[in-house]
């Protein structure tokens, strides 16, 4: 039998779990995989609405996903990557609730640690399972109590958060979405942004443009939280709950700066999704940690499939890698509440009903079982 090879996968979310399943299903006696936990963060925008999504629908134990495979094939290590040495082929993992650090040695390494928000929000998994669960519950409780909610940041996440709030509370609460520029969904065509604003207005969401946040002050008023949001224009806005959706940064602190984009801190990769500058091309990257083309679910899926095939080819079949393939066309889809949506395929606008059917109806939660079972890979 060939020598056992070790593949270390950092990150157990969309990209990491996809790669793990793809390798484990094909090569029963080779890889040992080391992961974290699985969080369907796509549905986090709806999970903050009380009673909409049970915990078990959005958070699943990774051991459930790996249980069908023989235990000798993998090892599940829960922890945080704190350093890496791509020449020595090692990574160090800080184990939870302990001062212990574990060094892992690999033949090939897959970076799938994703990104986080700098604010204390549940749009990404910024912490361990219990802390994330507590954050989701606390946010839902605050949403239920608040009379005026400000959502800051009018990118895709901000639009979806505001849409969910407007759908549920548009007639009973004040929902304000702050856009730092002239339009929501910056970077998109003006007509597409305008259509998105119209969908939000149907849900009684107030969109305030040219409203870049300068500072936020949290105040306790007779035991109740209040916020004052100061804009760069000098205007002060008062609210009961402030939900920022800007400030996403890659989880790349454990990687030497020479492998990162100096501005974005994302990982630099070539057309094969090798991390550039690594001896022997033994490190790969997928998902939100990657420098190109942008963060996105379908992009991550394609990257994970390509990396899994390339690791298999290079490590186990002694073949050359092939360039990674992305989606055939760039697609953007935003749910706007539980009844409508906006989207485009390339430059072609998609009907609201079509976006609702494809995404807004379930926010893709039916795919959680596919990731846990491995049928996605």
From TrEMBL:
Superkingdom, natural source: Eukaryota
GO terms for cellular component: cytoplasm
Keywords, in A-Z order: FAD, Flavoprotein, Oxidoreductase
Boundaries of every FAD/NAD(P)-binding domain copy: 6-294
GO molecular function annotation: electron-transferring-flavoprotein dehydrogenase activity; flavin adenine dinucleotide binding
Keyword Glycosyltransferase: no
InterPro entries, alphabetized: FAD/NAD-bd_sf, FAD/NAD-binding_dom
Gene3D superfamilies recorded: 3.50.50.100
Family the UniProt entry places it in: Belongs to the FAD-dependent oxidoreductase family.
Name under which the protein is recorded: FAD/NAD(P)-binding domain-containing protein
Organism this protein belongs to: Apiosordaria backusii
Taxonomic lineage of the native organism: Eukaryota, Fungi, Dikarya, Ascomycota, Pezizomycotina
